């Protein structure tokens, strides 16, 4: 950036233009990653609700004033294309939390990945509190090292009972005989994308169930996919040593989910018009 103050970052409730990309603070106690498309944050209310829930686990709450929210809305408006924003809750001097946010390096699957699927690997690791989106450096570091070693797209976590839980930065779904199976809610982060994919699945006539999925059961499913802020619904061609089909239902599901994203963008634009009227 040659030292130019060109990158917008939300600090202390105000937008600051800084010379370097946003870097997550080491002392963040909870965070969210929100996809922004043409200035519109997808599923903003749901993300802020989950951030509030994550803070509640730590005994904290969102700041009482709306300065941070106005700052977030201003930050989103800076992005004319598609990119992710990370929102961090950091401790302040009064014992509460302040929110800061910025655009982070974002990568999205290619069209070929959606057509052909991706390879994922298995990582034996458990989150301390899967219900809260709290940074766990040890799992992130282990996942990153494994992904670099295997050239896999994502690392899928396996708990001490040899059950699949979730991806290192995603959720996972399995498809067989028009039924989607995903791990129990208490074992995973309540994914925003996952909840929208559930709605999309029901719209296109797919059944939805939550149940434990052991390593031994992986080969019993016809197809699987990861869901998340960046990938949306991304088919998995191989998980560990198990290969899966890229079924048409997954593409239909992806399109139904994308329609919900479009609805979210339209609702945000309408809200903006009402705020400015």
What is this entry, summarized?
This is branched-chain-amino-acid transaminase. The chain has two domains: 7-104, 2-Layer Sandwich (D-amino Acid Aminotransferase, Chain A, domain 1), CATH 3.30.470; 111-261, Alpha-Beta Barrel (D-amino Acid Aminotransferase, Chain A, domain 2), CATH 3.20.10.
Describe the structure.
The strands form two sheets. Strands 7, 8, 9, 10, 11, 12, 13, 14 and 15 form a nine-stranded mixed beta sheet that branches. By secondary structure, the protein is of the alpha+beta class. The chain has two domains: 7-104, D-amino Acid Aminotransferase, Chain A, domain 1; 111-261, D-amino Acid Aminotransferase, subunit A, domain 2 (D-amino Acid Aminotransferase, Chain A, domain 2). The chain has helices at 44-57, 67-76, 111-116, 137-150, 192-203, 248-276; strands at residues 7-11, 14-18, 30-37, 40-41, 82-91, 97-104, 118-124, 154-158, 164-167, 171-176, 179-182, 207-210, 223-228, 232-239, 242-243. Strand 11, helix 5 and strand 12 (207-210) form a beta-alpha-beta unit. The chain is globular and about 50 Å long. Helix content is 31%, strand content 30%. It contains six helices and 15 strands.
